[in-house]
């Protein structure tokens, strides 16, 4: 294969791979003389098994020198809001509870997570965001729900 063919193949694979998060925007909260400012970042997360549902998560992102080199530990606080953005369809049956997204927010030990839960009696998808750490997690969390039209039953595993 030529270099040109490999480049096209790599771009195609990247375009076909599911996006886990897309940054929608950010605002500076603290000016730093050296390194990036502290920020609040808003990301969009499309549910990989539920087409037509997107969750928007806002969270703090630490700047400064540690933030620039990836050594900073971001705050545990996050907020989530999930919405139906188009017709809802299910790629495959859902578990009653499943992690749909996870991202590292410190060098080794801390992650932000989004978990989807199915509220069967109300035909509703419930999304929880929280952060955890290997040694000591945080009780800080946020929850959002997306009611699904009763005519469309949520398929379960």
From TrEMBL:
Pfam families cross-referenced by the UniProt entry: CreA (PF05981)
Signal sequence bounds: 1-21
Domain of life where this protein originates: Bacteria
GO cellular component: cytosol
PANTHER family per the UniProt record, alphabetical: PROTEIN CREA, PTHR37952
Residues passing through the membrane, by range: none
Protein name in the entry: CreA protein
Keywords for this protein: Signal
InterPro entries documented for this protein: Uncharacterised_CreA (IPR010292)
């Amino acid at each position: 294969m030529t270099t040109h063919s490999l480049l096209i193949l790599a771009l195609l694979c990247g375009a076909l791979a599911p996006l886990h998060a897309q940054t929608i925007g950010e605002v500076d909260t603290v000016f730093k003389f050296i390194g990036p400012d502290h920020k609040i970042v808003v990301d969009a997360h499309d549910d990989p098994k539920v087409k037509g549902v997107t969750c928007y998560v806002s969270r703090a992102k630490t700047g400064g020198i540690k933030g620039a080199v990836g050594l900073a530990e971001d705050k545990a606080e996050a907020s989530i809001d999930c919405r139906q953005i188009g017709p809802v369809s299910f790629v495959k049956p859902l578990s009653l509870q499943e992690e749909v997204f996870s991202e590292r927010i410190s060098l080794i030990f801390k992650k932000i997570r989004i978990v989807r839960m199915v509220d069967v009696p109300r035909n509703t998808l419930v999304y929880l965001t929280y952060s955890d750490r290997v040694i000591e997690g945080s009780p800080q969390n946020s929850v959002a729900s997306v009611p699904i039209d009763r005519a469309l039953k949520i398929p379960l595993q």
